[in-house]
Design a protein that fits this description.
Helix content: 40-55%
Shape: elongated
Strand content: under 5%
Mean pLDDT: 78
Number of helices: 1
Structural class: mainly alpha
Distance between the termini: 68 Å
Number of strands: 0
Length: about 55
């Protein structure tokens, strides 16, 4: 079973995670969200109870 041999894939896995951690992730973390949740206003809607015909 060659899938149990980590020798050919361990270096690929390691390089992929290092690339993600050191190059891609800091670039993604510098983006600022356009719709910040704290700036949204709370809308309260008045609900009316349902009038059931059998009660």
């Amino acid at each position: 079973m060659p899938q149990l041999n980590p020798n050919p894939w361990f270096l690929t896995l390691l390089l992929t995670w290092l690339t993600f951690s050191l190059a891609i992730q800091p670039k993604l973390l510098t983006f600022t969200p356009t719709n910040h949740p704290s700036y949204k206003t709370q809308l309260t809607t008045k609900t009316t109870p349902w009038t059931w015909p059998w009660t």
